[in-house]
Structures are given as C-alpha cells and as structure tokens.
Amino acid sequence: MILTEQPRVRFERAAELSVHLAQQDSLEGQLSKRLFVKGNEAAAMGAVAAGCRYYFGYPITPQSDIPEYLSRELPKLKGEFIQAESEIGAINMLLGASATGVRAMTSSSSPGISLKQEGISYMAGAELPGVIINISRSGPGLGGIDASQSDYFQAVKGGGHGGYHIPVLAPNSVQEMYDLTLHAFDLADLYRTPVMLLGDSVVGQMKEALVPNPRPVRELPEKEWAVRGKGSAGQRVVKSLFLGDGELEAHNWRLHAKYQVMKEKECISEEFETADAKLIVTGFGSVSRIAQTAVAMAREEGLKVGLFRPVTLFPFPEKALAEAAGHAGRVLVIELNTGQMVEDVRLSVGARAQVSFYGRPPGAGSLPSPEEILDVIRKNYDQAPQ
Amino acid sequence: MQQVFKRPQSLKDVQTHFCPGCHHGTIHRLVADAMDLHGVQERTIGVASVGCSVFLYGYFDIDVVEAPHGRAPAVATGVKRAKPDNFVFTYQGDGDLAAIGTAEIIHAANRGEDITVIFVNNTTYGMTGGQMAPTTLVGQKTSTSPYGRDKSKDGSPIRMAELMAQLGGVAYSARVAVDSPKHVLEAKKVIREAFGYQVQGRGFSFVEVLSACPTNWGMNPLKANARVGEEMIPYFQLGVFKKEEA
C-alpha cells in the first residue's frame, strides 16, 4: 500500500529540532546520497556522524550489526572499539570514557540492558552523558529474539535503582535509527544524562533507504565537569555519592527539575490523519508502522481514524496526545506487550477520551498484521463517541 | 636547615576518616609519593572504588572518577582509552576487586590496559562492618563466618598477585606490606616501579598491599599490625611475581 499523505511531525516547543532534516533536502540531493542499509547499521552510522569514536559492547542478538560495523569503522577514525568481558564491563567503560568528556556509546538487547542498569543508574547519578542503544527482544528471562516492546517500563521509568529518568527515543524506520542516534548524542550532552534509543528486531534488522545527512549539532555547553587531569585548573570529581547533610536531597531535586525541563522542551511526536479523527490509534516504534498501514486502510473504508506516535517515550508527549485525543474521543493503544505505554496514555488523556488497549506479547508469530489491527480498529470505531 | 620529610604534593593537607591503626593512610601516602616521583599529579585520573577507599578524592589532589562496586578496572579502561596521555590508576579493596569485580580485573589485566591497580587486601569487608572476604584466611572469624572460614564450604583465600602474574597482558605484579619500616620502604619502591611501567607505556601493573583493619578484626592497632606479619604474610607471600623486562 502506498501512502499518499506524509505524517506530520510535531515538536512541542522544540521547533528548532531538525530530526527530519533529511526531508528538507532536495529530492535529487536525497537520491544521490541514498543508501540501502539495516536499521542497526544506520544507528552505527549515526553515531559516527555524531562524532562518537568510542564504543564498548558485548555480542547479543539482534543488535550485533552495531558492534560489527563499529569494530570495522572506528579504528579507521582513530577511535576505540572494545568487546568487553560483559555488559557490565561495557557500561562501565562507557562511564569512564564519558567522564573524560568524549562522545561514547554502548548497545545491547534486553537481557544485556538489564545487566547495564547498575551503570546507567551511576551515570544518571553522576550526570554523565552517553548513548545506549537497546534493540530489545522478548522476555522475561531468556524469552526469545522476536520484536518486543516489553521493556517500555524498564526504559522510561528508570530501569535501575535510585529514582531517575533518562530520555528514551523510539525510532520506527531506518532513517530514524540514524537521525535519532544523532539527536540522542545532543540530548546526552545538553542534559548531562544517559540517553536510550529503544528499538527492536523490526527496526534494527530491516533494510530501508537511508539518507545519511548529518545535521548541524545544537549549541552545546562546554564540558567543564569532565576529568582531564587537574592541571592548573583544580580538582574535578565525577561521582554519585553525596553524604553531606542535605546534599543528596538537593541533588535529587535538581535532577527532578532537569526532567521537568525535558518534559517542557524535548517531547517529539508524529501525527497521521488526526485532524478529523474520531478514533486515535497510538503505538511506538515498530508497531506504529503496522498501525499506520492499518489506519490508511481504515481511511479507505471511510473511517475517520488517525495515528499518534510518541517518538520520545520519556519525556512522554502528554500535551500533544491529550489534545489529539480530546478532539477524537477515543484512543486505541497498540503495543507488543500486555500493556505498558497504555498507562502513560491514560495519565495523559485523563477524562478527555476513552482508552482501550490491544496488546500482543512478543514471541514467534505474534507480530500483528495490518489486517488484524484493522479489525481491532473497526470494533473500536463502533464504540467511539459519535 | 634541610627539610628531609614532608607531605607529598599529591596528598591534600587534611585529616583522614580512617580508623586508628588502619593502613590506608600509609598506602595513600606511598601512592602520592609515586605520583610526585613520576611528576604525573596534574595528568592523573584516579578511579575510586566502593569501600573505605571511596573517599580518595578527599585525600588525593587529583581528578577522580567514582566507579560502581568492583567496576573500577572497566571504568579505568574507558578513561585510559579515551585519554591515553593521562596517568590512570584504580585503588580497590579485596571485596571490590577479588569478589564482585573479578571479571573486570581479570579482563582489564588480560587486555593489557595501560593502567595501574593498587589492591588493598585486609582480608575483610571494612566499610560494611567486617564480613567474610574472598581473601579471608581459613579459620578467620568474621561477622558472616562466625565459626571461622571453612575451606570446604567457603573456599580458600584468593592470591590475586600470583593470579595476575599468569595473565599475558600483565607487565608487573607484586605483593607488599606496610607493617614495618622495612616493608614500607619496600612497598614504596614497588609502587614507584609499578607506576613507572605505566609512565613508560609498558602495560598493566598491579600492586597488592597487605593491610590491617583493627576495627573489624577486633584488635587494637598494635595487635592488628602484628597480625599482618604473623598470619597474612605466611599465606600471602611478599614479592614481585612478574616483571616484564623492557
């Protein structure tokens, strides 16, 4: 099915963001630069374009294309690639490299991301930037390697100890694997925080056209805090231990204030056919691609259905969703799990609209087809307030 | 008048929080002395671990990164790979390095990371109140081995300096003690030598320092100091176990 209408990208109070700058390039310019690559490779290319020269990782399916690409490319750029002894080793190498002020990253998949949570918590506490790509898979436990969205809670609610948040970006195309990786490095430096790119085997393994268009970076603060050897500048310490009277409470309130700024400035969402919709379908990442096809099919049947896609999962685009849902009256949440993002949808929408949920817990053969989603859309459409 | 003894420049002029009779203070001084000798203070990045030594940024006048428990060698790897011109060392206790951080120390050493590890072995978890450590001697009573370490159930104390010497990436591995003036002078020489390996870019260097923990051993400082020679050194023998020649 060919979609005639392009999705409208919406940046809440962050209009300067040019995540989709590639689209602004002329068509000729795009065609001349166009590549045909996997999503995982696109993310690795985005990291290189962002100036990342340090990668630390451990093999795990379905993300191994990322370390494989970077093990080949980083040495050519005088960078460092280390296959660590474990996910724990890798995240702590990222912590150390990042503490010196360089752009660095790691990548993994769900079980490996669980192991990294200790380090992510320490990085959040010490306010260290760093990019973590999670090409997530199904669980719990060893689960399987199928496309999965079971780790939404772990990603957006603070997966490790201590009550922190990190920005979480959810690409749904190969182009976005590249664009959002660039954006992740900017957010990490801007807010001094780890940032997670949350994908799955669909966006990681599929091949699509990519226009590798490194955009100008946002104006970023100097890394005055980075350790370089004290020289004549005086001692710098990167730490998350605060034992002085009132120190840790103040630190936590300061982190909280930072999250509020992110909520104000960094929400990204995408809307498709929402203007006159009676029913809003919402989902993130891979499932949103299937849902968009189903929405287009529903439109052909004359159903007024739209798609709202959160691109940032933290901060969650609450205001934009509430607005779209308020016009429609009913929201259908689709996830590859038994219901996680739906909680944030309910909080965002409140009493403005009814919220229903269609979930497919991950596993072989559980990825819904557009027709299956269309069926769910029809049933929900009948129940939508007219 | 000639000044013959002074505080090393790399050490801050502050009081430490260490218990009376604890050897961390002496070891800190020797590490600072070695930094001064090699003139690396201004380009040093220390990696602090979890335990009594976590506060080393309060005592060393150098840049410091704090690592999660056991992960200091991985953190130091990231620091050194990003900034190869900096001097990088970790300072870790026995629970940190030889239990929870075993994977990190073995693999940083085996890769031959150009860093130095100062490993303080006092046969117990000091900060958490004297529990059994991987280096606790057989028969030694601790708060979690109240009947004494039982070899059949708890295993034997790990000899890290010897283990390190087996790994291809290790250029220098030694064990020293600081329980007597003679041993302190030997320890000073060894730590200076280990730092020298990194300064010359010759690979991974490792120094295990036997240390007293009077508080958790339930001894007064003099008795604790005597225990190092009477019980620890017979099992954890002093010496240089590996020294790659240039």
From TrEMBL, chain B:
One of its GO terms (molecular function) is thiamine pyrophosphate binding. Residues 136-146 have a biased composition (Polar residues). Pfam families: TPP_enzyme_C. InterPro entries: 2-oxoacid:Fd_oxidoreductase (IPR051457), THDP-binding (IPR029061), TPP_enzyme_TPP-bd (IPR011766). GO terms for biological process: cellular respiration; small molecule metabolic process. Residues 136-155 are annotated as: Disordered. Residues 63-209 form the Thiamine pyrophosphate enzyme TPP-binding domain. The keyword Oxidoreductase applies. Keywords: Oxidoreductase. PANTHER family: 2-OXOGLUTARATE OXIDOREDUCTASE SUBUNIT KORB-RELATED, SUBUNIT OF PYRUVATE:FLAVODOXIN OXIDOREDUCTASE. This is 2-oxoacid:ferredoxin oxidoreductase, thiamin diphosphate-binding subunit.
